[in-house]
């Protein structure tokens, strides 16, 4: 089973990003956009702007943690898309 680390960007006037991991990327994005995702993502529309694929859950969680803490990387991706 593959796992994905992903970054979403909100469609707000001042966009924000959200980083997460999942084993079913498109189902998870659909959940975020329907208000059933993480509490932080409710009430916004999200667009996938970045993803990485991993073979294990442990690798995905580790990378998710790194991206969440690395503000410069998140801003680089957010401003690139």
Description:
This protein is α+β, with helices and mostly antiparallel strands. It contains 3 helices and 3 strands, in the order ββαβαα. Strands 2-1-3 form a 3-stranded antiparallel β-sheet, with helices on both faces. The protein starts with a strand and ends with a helix.
Sum up the structure in keywords.
3 strands, 81 residues, GIY-YIG endonuclease, alpha+beta, 28% strand, globular, 3 helices, 41% helix, three-stranded antiparallel beta sheet
Major sheet strand order: 2-1-3
How much helix, percentage-wise, in residues? Answer: 40-55%
CATH architecture: 3-Layer(aba) Sandwich
Strand content range? 25-35%
According to CATH, what is the topology?
A: GIY-YIG endonuclease
How would you state the average pLDDT, rounded? 94
Instruction: Please report the total strand number as a whole number.
Output: 3
Low-confidence stretches: none
The N- to C-terminal Cα distance equals 28 Å
Structural class: alpha+beta
Instruction: State Rg.
Output: 12 Å
Give the count of helical stretches.
Answer: 3
What string gives the helices and strands in order? EEHEHH
How many structural domains are formed by the residues?
Answer: 1
Overall form: globular
CATH class: Alpha Beta
- Characterize the main sheet: 3 strands, antiparallel
Brief summary:
This protein is an alpha+beta fold. It is 41% helix and 28% strand. The protein has a single domain, classed as 3-Layer(aba) Sandwich (GIY-YIG endonuclease).
């Amino acid at each position: 089973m593959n796992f994905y680390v992903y970054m979403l960007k909100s469609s707000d006037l001042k966009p924000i990003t959200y980083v997460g991991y999942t084993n079913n990327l498109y189902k998870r994005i659909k959940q975020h956009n329907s208000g059933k995702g993480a509490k932080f993502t409710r009430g916004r529309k999200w667009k996938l702007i970045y993803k990485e694929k991993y073979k294990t859950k442990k690798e995905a969680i580790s990378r998710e943690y790194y991206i969440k803490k690395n503000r410069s990387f998140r801003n680089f991706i957010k401003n690139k898309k």
